Every structure is written in structure tokens, then in C-alpha cells.
């Protein structure tokens, strides 16, 4: 029996300042069907280099699950909503159960 191809979704990571309204951005992405689910993680400390200086800030991580073919639209909309000059936008392709991947695809349409 031939093996079924893996089902995939995309997981997009971005960060926002600890005081930003992450829930409003998450709700917009869900309402506009650009994402099936957005997890907002507790504030954390981020250390990074920006414009030649080492910076340290409190941020919150958003983990966004979407259909792989929606990543371009998601990126364009997140760029409009995001307060940062250069927002983090990392895309990870993931495999998942057929049922979950189907739900993501249906939710992000």
C-alpha cells in the first residue's frame, strides 16, 4: 500500500511588545480567516541586536497556525497590524493529523 503524503500546515511566529494588544491582533487574523488559531504566550525577555546596539525588552510571542497557501496574505495583513518597524515573521512547515490539518484549512479560508 502506498504511503499517503504528509499533511502540512504553516506555523508563523511573531513577537509584540509586552504591552501590545496581542489579543486584538489575534482576533483580527481569526475574524479575517487568515489563521485558524493564534496562541499568545506570556511575556518573556528578549535580547537582540537592533541598529548596532544590544537591546533588551519584554515581549509576547504569537504562535499562528494557518493553511500554507495563506502565508502570503497573512504576512501582508500582519505587516499592516504590527507596531514594529521590522516584525518577526518566521514560517515553520509542520505535519499534522489529517483531521487537524483539515480543520486549519477550513478555518483559514
SSE sequence, one letter per element: EHEEEHEH
* Quantity of strands, as a count: 5
- Structure annotation, total helices: 3
CATH-defined fold name: Alpha-Beta Plaits
N/C terminus separation = 32 Å
Given as residue ranges, the uncertain stretches (5+ residues, pLDDT < 50) are 1-6
Mean model confidence by pLDDT: 93
3D structure, described in words:
28% of the residues lie in helices and 38% in strands. It has 3 helices and 5 strands; from the N terminus they run E-H-E-E-E-H-E-H. It starts with 7 loop residues before the first strand and ends with a helix. A hairpin with a 2-residue loop joins strand 3 and strand 4 (53-66). It has 109 residues and is of the alpha+beta class. It has one domain (14-107): Alpha-Beta Plaits, CATH 3.30.70. Strands 1, 2, 3, 4 and 5 form a 5-stranded antiparallel beta sheet that branches. The protein is elongated and about 45 Å long. It has helices at residues 22-31, 71-81, 98-107, and strands at residues 8-17, 37-40, 44-50, 53-66, 90-95.
Amino acid at each position: 500500500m502506498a504511503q499517503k503524503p504528509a499533511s502540512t500546515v504553516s506555523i508563523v511566529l511573531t513577537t509584540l511588545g509586552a504591552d501590545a494588544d496581542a489579543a486584538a491582533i489575534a482576533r483580527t487574523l481569526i475574524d479575517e480567516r487568515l489563521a485558524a488559531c493564534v496562541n499568545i504566550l506570556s511575556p518573556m525577555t528578549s535580547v537582540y541586536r537592533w541598529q548596532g546596539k544590544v537591546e533588551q525588552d519584554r515581549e509576547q510571542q504569537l504562535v499562528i497556525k494557518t493553511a500554507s497557501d495563506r502565508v502570503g496574505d497573512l504576512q501582508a495583513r500582519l505587516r499592516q497590524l504590527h507596531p514594529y518597524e521590522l516584525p518577526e515573521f518566521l514560517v515553520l512547515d509542520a505535519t499534522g493529523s489529517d483531521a487537524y490539518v483539515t480543520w486549519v484549512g477550513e478555518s483559514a479560508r
